Give the backbone structure.
Amino acid sequence: MTLWLSFVAAGVLASLAGALWRVWRGPRRADRMMGAQLVGTGGVAVLMLLAPLGSWAALDVALVLALLAALAAVGFVKATSPDGAGDPEEEEETPRRKADG
Amino acid sequence: MADVATVVLTGIGLFFFLAGTAGLMRFPDTFSRLHALTKADNLGLGFIALGVAFQAATWREVALLALIWALALLAAGTVSQLVARAALGEEETR
Amino acid sequence: MTFVLDAVLCALILGVAAATIAGHGVFRAIVFFIVYGLLVAVGWVRLGAVDVALAEAAIGAGLTGVLFLAAYGRLGREGAGGDAPAPAHLPAAMAGLGVTCALGWAWSALPLPDRPGPQLAEALPMSGVENPVTAVLLNFRAWDTLLESVVLLAALTGLWMLTRDAAWGGRIGLPQHVRPDGVMAGFGRVLPPLGLLVGVYLVYIGADRPGGAFQGGTVLAAVGLVAALAGAVRPPRIGATRWRAALVAGPLVFLLAGLAGAALGAGFLTLPPQIAGAALFAIEVALAASIAVTLAFLVLGPPEETITR
């Protein structure tokens, strides 16, 4: 079981390289944030998989990561709002631009 | 029996993580990539939590796994909504 | 297979570290720094240092990310968001390289510390707690921790000095606003109760398992930050007495416990075993409150809104 769980954990970690590529590449800031979000979820998954391998205390770390998973994204949408303290949902009519990559 | 369940469920979880990453890399625009991301967030993590739960010695650990997944779902839903809104109308940046 | 796992983790950490400082674009560097904090937290768990992992998860992946993103947003609004010209990076790069070389030298030149052996096992029952990390932080090396808590307070004082005269007395941070029934407002109402529970839990278990004042306090700070950003709570005014009391509670209780040790004849900050358990619990609770409030205030920043007198 140790072997399998380590394999899955290594697999999840390796897949995160793809998310990191998206952080590097962009092109939008939202794309980079999404990459970070996937790494966060992947980190939680890896910590869950590490728990049976020896320390169930790893779940406490996973709990903190999951609790604060949205913090960076909230900070991001705040920082990119016009006055730095807004909410992207407030504007009724958001100027729509071409949504291409 | 518990070990078989762990192997199968975490295997499915890994598949969804790989699929989510592939989508994040390959999908053509920001909003379809967001769709790929939530698959890994919700399903991948959910299956892994379920698989690991079969290895837990106490119910406390099972409850903790469930709580972590619930928090991740809450975060994923919030983040996708907010980031999508912020991406609307954002110009491409470096 | 665990070797492969560790190798992949190390490769990712090194790759992310390189990506953070390579290339240009402030925003990309910030996102990579957040990711770096996440991966390092996993690394600490692999090394068996769950206490450090908890702090790294809350600070590295949580608070500093918000701080940098807010700074990035402000640079953009002030019209200073462009990248610094390449020569400006050179001194920073040289300084970074110097620190790396010094660390490398220290790692190879200094003798490896002995694993905590029978000495710690002997002293632990007298410390008042069962988690060796908490015992070292709050009892055996209490001086360091006391001074650290004072440093946090000094940092906040320094930050508050930057307040404009016209804004002094106002609510700290930017005046936050959200759509009342929106996603962010809803998130800000659902998460904090759960987060409060997790933070208090981490403080409470710190006596016998990984957790404690720093870890729990940081989580509480991050949760308070979510509540403030999402408009669920309004940050207090900068002069509010109750909140200022919370800022100094930790160092104060720590000092009082130290003086109690001196009064009982054991010496300043040396806690005799009969009061150690109760004293450490009091210190831990007060310190967690102070750390939480100080860190949250640090990230929110000084008052910004000009108040009319």
Summary: Residues 90 and 96 of chain C are 10 Å apart (CA to CA). Chain C is about 70% helix and 0% strand. Chain C touches chain A through 69 residues (CB under 8 Å).
